[in-house]
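Researcher: Let's try something more involved. This one mixes different molecule types, so please make sure each is placed in the same coordinate frame as the others.
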Amino acid sequence: MSSEAILSLREVSKSFGGLKALDTVSFDLDRGQITSLVGPNGSGKTTLFNCISGIYTPESGRIHFSGREVTSYSAARRCKMGIGRTFQVVRPFLKMTCFENILVGWCFGQEKYQKPAASDADGILEFVGLKDRKHHQAGELRLAERKRLEIARALATQPKLLLLDEVAAGLNPVEVQQVVTLLRQIHQQGITLLIVEHVMSLVMDISDRVIVLNEGKKLADDQPEYVSNNQKVIEVYLGPSELDPKDTA
Amino acid sequence: MTRRDFTLLVGFACLILVIPLVVRNEYFLHLFILAAMFANLAGYWNLLDGYLGLINFGYAAYVGIGAYTSALLAMHFSLPIPLCMVIGGLLAGIVGVLLIIPCLRMVTFSTAIVTLAFGEIARIGATAWTGLTKGEMGLWGIPPLFPSQNKLLYYYGCLGLLVLGALMLKCLLHSRLGLAVLSTREDETAANTSGIETNRIKLLISGISCFAAGVVGAFYAHYILTITPGLFSIGYTIQIMTMSMFGGKGTLSGPILGAFALIFLGEGFRFMQDYRMLVYGFLIIGTVMVFPTGLAGAIARVKQAMGIKRK
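Model: All components are placed in one shared frame. Result:
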């Protein structure tokens, strides 16, 4: 584990029944980088997120965050330490207002409780572009806005590492562009980002590094331009090439 | 709260305080005392079901535990009765927390089954443990809370308990803890990843709610002076639940409205004799169908409609 690493996974495995959702996955995330996690459906991306954020405990392997082992810590404790996350299927508190949603993150997600000031919440809402929605219930928001609200709630916990699970899925191109801008701004605040994403243009656009998962195993781990030319990755995404001599044999 | 709401509230409070001085009717006072106790219970049931999203079908058992504990302590050790009531509440709270611990690993609906079973076990236990509880014979000769059996004192006593209970609920729900309670109901996983230990919240709120049930049960014991294991029965839990839903689940005023409305309606329908419960049942179903948010929701809608008209 290098001193630069904010998050470090060592041989993390998790299975559901007989299915190995994660098979000895190891990697380090450097502080301040944007890393994308890609892979076909069912390759274990969300399971990995759940292991990092503490919703699942891995069966074997260890997870270190900010130099401390957090493998057995609860999700709430990891959140307080600085791991924020959003969900693939958004989960804002629907019957609470946007303001209250952020207040939850602010009041419970920080390392030490700080009395919330109205300006803090306003600042976060303005940052994600939901200022005029402050007193609306989360259930009244559009999908794109709900996704922003989730990001806002995670930001209110003052994370050091933010896990974003498919923030661009289901959004139109204009909204995707807005998300890219938002992610860049979050990154500029010094927050390390780990992103699960299917929108490849976004991945190629903003990532410093791309990790490819397939059937629970790490397949590739490199800079985006190398990964997109990696033969194994292309096979996983597009099926084996017919010209491949190994297949015809 | 607007100025008009405040004036209304003060007016209402004065009315409540003066009523028993004017209406010198023991039967009416008894109904009022019952309604106030049920209002308190419905409010704290609502804290679990309406705010936290945890259904507890064994709620009457905590009332029973509080009542029996307090009564037995007062009878055998002649401790001061307010102290007995607090100890009764504490025991109910502790049992409530212990029961929820295994439920934390289950889905919400399994909790309903576990608590339902516990309620029955507690009732059968109270019936069978004749050495302590005198079984179906019931405990009698419980020392009264107030030296003279004047209903007026109990009227103000239960009113005080109700106001205290409601104020505590209001403070709790408007605090940081209240925010955690609501987000646990809305989405447990999201609450976890926002830094809330939802299991601790569930245990704490269960403890508070069952404590309140125990204290009200103890008050009942030292008011009625005779208690039987029937106090533990699921029927009471259903009644408390109905009041909470009829009045408005997830609101502060709802359960209080519901308890008073159902107690007095139930009595008001006595002239119908055998058809009484039938009409009562249909009325509840009808209200819940027309106003899914209960009486409190209906009032809010009427107020809103009036506000629009005035504009």
